[in-house]
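Data availability (excerpt). The following record was deposited with the supplementary files.
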Amino acid sequence: MKRVVVTGMGLISSLGNDLETAKNRLHEYRNAVMIMPELQEISGLNTHLAAPAMEFTLPEHYTRKVLRTMGPVSIMAVYTAEKALSDAGLLGSPVLTSGRTGVAYGSSFGSAEGVADFFAIRKTKAVGDITSFSYLKLMPQTTAVNISLYFKTIGRIIPSGTACTSGSLAIGYAYEAIKYGIQDVMIAGGAEEFDITQVAVFDTLYATSTKNDAPHLSPAPFDTMRDGLVIGSGAGTLILEEYEHAITRGAKIYAEIVGFGSNTDGMHATQPNKDTMAKCMELALQSADLSPKDIGYVNMHGTGTKHGDIAESLATESVFESDIPVSSLKSYVGHTLGACGALESIWSIQMMNDGWFAPTLNLSVPDENCGNLDYIMGNGREINLQHVMNNNFAFGGINTSLIFKKG
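Predicted structure:
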């Protein structure tokens, strides 16, 4: 088996569009949630809150010809991949086009503008705004394909369209592709653009926060006063590399991926199952050959929904008992859906290397129905550790667990 390390990272987020800025914002204990005027205009929508990614300016080499197959979600995916490859020292490297580099990437779905153009024909009975590139923008594999096209990779491609586990599942599959010797380098992660349709999906399930007059107080994962999630957006890309390949070229190493677990509930499309969640964490521990005591911190999925927080926290307690430090970074950036697994992996790695872990914002009184865990509240905490776990769970009962070791 091959060892797999993280040698590059890039992001676009509501906390900032470079690694240092976003990391520093965690220390400020302020979330990025805001009132969105476009949500206020939607009749019947309960929430007006969101945490969209900060605006960014593309370099000049992103020409109109380059962008014609990309909607906003693919633009973020490709741009963060370029940032990550540059960070890894692999931008322009022959390995990208050698067949030894692959792409594993995901989003909940493609760009909404492409969807709107493509399916307007059903109502208008006219071709309308459909172009030869419309499907390329809306297709579920749009992020992975556009990354591959832009960097001309010819290795394995693994699109991931599993809602809130799109990014984490892509990282896990990328890890396995290198672990089993199929690829030497993988561009992995997830992205999600902001669109009112995504907000509407969760709003119709009564799963969104309605603290419309106090955006700084939401979301509040695990807290007694939590009232639902807040939708965010952004992208996160990690460059995974076979250990010897990285060492030979003198690459910096952020972390090593040592464990990955994934399974499905097999019971309900939207109701989480604590038993299969716990099993997923156990699978990650088994693949890493670690015990629960070896994990120093768990980054929780922690969306701020009533049933999700309870199920996840009880599952975590059943695996780690009550002394494991935990927090949810969605309290800062909301739920970035397909991007959350990648963004939260990046921040988990940074916190591990810094020895400082962010608290869950807006958590002051943990719900007594949630698991008995060491919730990091109020201020951040300094912890010297070797391993962190990042967990994500999605509609369809899709569960993922990643374990990172300090580089």
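Summary of structural features: The CA atoms of residues 358 and 380 lie 5 Å apart.
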